[in-house]
What does this fold into?
Amino acid sequence: MLDMIPLALFDASQFFNWFVENANYWFVFIFMVIESSFIPFPSEVIVPPAAYLAVRNVGAGADMNVVMVTVVATLGALVGAFINYYIALWIGRPVVYRFADSRFGHACLIDREKVVKAEEYFDRHGAASTFIGRLIPAIRQLISIPAGISKMNVGTFAIFTSLGALVWNAILTLLGYILARNVEPELLFDKVEEYNRYLTYAGYALALICLGYILWNAFKPRRTGYKDSQS
It folds into this structure.
């Protein structure tokens, strides 16, 4: 099936047009696996056009259902996230520990104990990070790496990755649905690009809010206990 993919794969507009002509559940799944793994690939050129075709019930999308587009895209995202998770677990984690045990690591004030504490922290708080990370541009693919390095519980990782991916893919599906009601096929790519900019800005705003919350928790004044105030 992949041998059908044209050389124009790396040109977003040409790939978009090719996908519109050939869209099916398998392609949605395969390209969402790629998008969610370590290979950078925009989900915005996959889910919205698939949903668009499903809603209009035309061409390659005549056999697709808009709800199933969201489900299949989320399953693909989960598989891609697990690829990153296990690569980080099997390759990244040993590298991190070797660095922590090295003289250079110690010179950088990093040792095994600190790495263990960092793993424990991510295991406690990584669920929220994994969920929110799936909604932030340029972070979606990378959030699986610290989860793998820290040996985050696989079940927890799967649940919150799926929830985050589901929310993101539902947003993209909604975009495709709206465009199907208001935009003709020849304008579809330009409109997807336009709305994708808004989604990107919203993602960056979410990232800044999360960063601000983390910094506020890190540096806010700590309340002293009653005994300390009386001493």
